[in-house]
Amino acid sequence: MLICVTHRLLCPDDFLTRIDRIASQHPYCIVLREKDLPETEYEALAQDCLSICRRYDVPLQVNTHIAVARKLDCGIHLPFHLLMQHQEELVDFARVGVSLHSSEEAAQLAGTPATYVQAGHVFPTDCKKGLPPRGLSFLESVCQATDLPVFGIGGINAEQYPAVLRTGAAGACVMSGLMTCSDVAQTMQPFL
User: Fold this and answer.
1) pLDDT tens-digit readout, 9-19
2) Pick from 117, 115, 123: nearest CA to 144
3) Are 117 and 97 in contact (CB under 8 A)?
4) Which helix (H) or strand (E) holds 192?
5) Terminus-to-terminus CA distance in the chain, angstroms?
6) Is 16 helix (H, G, I), strand (E, B) or coil?
């Protein structure tokens, strides 16, 4: 399974056209990352992306902005510390993603509203320049610490994907590869 994590500034072409191509391949979900946008601009972009996602019946996950996710009636994706701070606000969300960086954090997810986990970064990635990757053993320890589906993130490509799955992960998250590739369907195919 594949989660697409967006980064529109990497796109060499129209971002919404790319979202349409990605959604047409039916990933597990699309996480609208776009951390640089103020909330009002983020909400407008999320509305456009949600229209596309609904056409293909693909869940859209709003990153961090709980109020926007609630207003648009879509999923939410949060870093671990925000999930833990806002648990009561999240109980009515159908899909709650959480990003984490340790098996200790994963072990604390029982009883929270979290429905899936992004764990990383697994391999070297330009998104985390200068930070050493945590590796496959880290990903395996996260998978063993929770019953939730775990998706590895960070530098994962099609060649590494089988090794990611062998850790017990449900799938992978891809950002740069999907934002910059020339053929979205071909890039996604090995993950689906």
Assistant:
1) 999 999 999 99
2) 117
3) yes
4) none
5) 5
6) helix
CA distance 15 to 93: 27
Query: Which residue in the block uniquely carries the two structure tokens 């590869």?
Result: 177
Q: What is the pTM of this model?
A: 0.96
**Using one digit for the tens of pLDDT, what is the confidence trace for 134-165?**
999 999 999 999 999 999 999 999 999 999 99
Q: Is the dihedral of CA 82, 87, 89, 91 positive or negative?
A: positive
Q: Assess contact for 46 and 60: CB atoms under 8 A.
A: yes
Spell out the residues 6+ positions from residue 35 whose beta carbon is closer than 8 angstroms to its own. Answer: 63, 64
Question: Residue type at 144?
Answer: Q
**Rounded Cα distance, 117 and 72, in Å:** 22
Say how far apart CA 76 and CA 155 lie, in whole Å: 23
Per-residue b or e along 39-66, where b marks 16 or more CB atoms closer than 10 Å to that residue's CB: eeebbebbeebbebbeeeebbbbbbbbe
SS3 of 11, please? coil
Q: Which amino acid is at 62?
A: V
The C-alpha angle 21, 3, 83, rounded to 5 degrees, equals 135
Helix axes 39-56, 15-23, angle to 10 degrees: 40
